[in-house]
Amino acid sequence: MIDKRHVNNRGGTQAWLTGSRSWIVLFALGCLLKYAIGIAGAATVASAPNPNQPAAALQVVHWWTSAGERKAVDVLASKLAEENIQWRDAAIPGGAGLGASKVLKSMVLAGKAPEATQLNGIVFGEWADLGLLLELDDVATPGGWQKLLFPTVWSLVHNRGHVVAAPLGIHRINNLFYNKKIFDRLGLTAPKTWAEFERVAEKLKHAGVTPLAQSSEAWQVATLFETLVLAESGPAYYRSLFVDLNPGAFGDTRMTHALQRLRTLKAWMAQPVRERPWPEMTRQLADGDAAMFVMGDWAKGELLAWGLTTDQEFSCVAVPGTADYHLYSVDTLAMFAGDYSHQTAQEKLAQLIMSQPVQSAYNQAKGAISVWRSPALSKMDSCARSSWSAFSKGSAFQAPSLVHRMAADETAKDAIVAEVHRYFVDDKMSESDIQRRLVSIARSLSKTGKQE
Ligand code: GAL
Q1: What distance in angstroms lies between residue 202's CA and the mean position of ligand 1's atoms?
Q2: H helix intervals, 243-328
Q3: 98, 171, 223, 300: residue to mutate for ligand 1 pocket, most atoms within 8 A of CB
Q4: If you placed Cys at 72, which of 320, 343, 365, 413 could pair as Cys (CB 3.0 to 4.6 Å)?
Q5: pLDDT digit string (tens) for 310-326?
Q6: Which CATH number fits domain 10-168+333-372: 1.10.3720.10, 3.40.190.10, 3.10.20.740, 3.40.50.12580?
Q7: Does the Cβ of 149 fall within 6 Å of ligand 1?
Q8: Which residues pair with 74 in a beta bridge?
Q9: 360-379: per-residue pLDDT in tens?
């Protein structure tokens, strides 16, 4: 096995020169010093992993704490246990990983990086540039990952020619879940257009059922909003907003329409819209307190974990206007290199994650689809199959989730999410007000400068 200590820092210098986040620079200084001391101290100790070593343990930071998420984690932990490796759980509650990403930064700054972490999105390129992540090429190359993976996933886990994360599954976000029993009882069919949605919502309201479940938690509002942006005008415009941060796109009338749609939908939610964790909103759908719910398919994992069955108690369709598209979030685990003493166990975890049985069992529990481009379709329910077909159409039909870190860095994401949330809770704020603010955020953060 190659000792990667000396090759793992490639690109680090460039990140130092170009990186805009001061915490990264500070933390890099601290860590490099610490690693330098650690490496010097360990130099005399044999570092080659011993295949007969006793049981290893890996601490894993993640934010999977709901019933469905726990079931998915259990798949990973039990497979790892079969290899005599303990999964030491460090679960930080908080939907979309808001708490977990803060805790992770603090752990790394304190020199206590976990061996593995859920590190979704483009952010792991930054961590990899600092030389902190274990390169997984020794697993990915013989495992044929490039051929197995969807090209979008392959490029996501790839940084400067090296694989720096193990991909778990692909979530679709543009789902409209509905309570099938209520729909059947009222003779309703799932809406495919916004006009149909309005008609269905009206009937539900008339029957005394809240048409749409929704929390006012910022990331949940913004998750709904990014879906509406996609519905309004497709992946190309979506990317010009959230990937390119093109200021002109934020001032566009398509943005105005997506914002207006958000207000229209608000009228179909229980008033006042309260701030609740997403599993509680999923519970409202399951219990029939609300009839529809727009959410990532981790909500399906939750419904299944509670014993409900797809197409019996609940079902799903794409949000109106998005049937051809896939708004995605890919869950990945990255490994911290540290002093390389856990490398064998970390590589084993990466290998397991990409194995067919784990891909299948994990994603069934999680509500997601496999990252393999040719998964076992027979084991998928109708929601998963429709997610797989949309994602398989290729990148022109895919939209990377802003809220779930697939499109832009944390700074841009947080700034946009905060503005959308403000617009959602304050009915007096006009579309032109928020658009002006978004244009100026995009101007200051855009990679392409003043592009309009
Ligand atoms: C996403 C993540 C999912 C799920 C969800 C809700 O960011 O990809 O795995 O955990 O947040 O917290």
Answers
A1: 31
A2: 247-251, 253-266, 278-287, 298-305
A3: 171
A4: 365
A5: 999 999 999 999 999 99
A6: 3.40.190.10
A7: no
A8: none
A9: 999 999 999 999 999 888 88
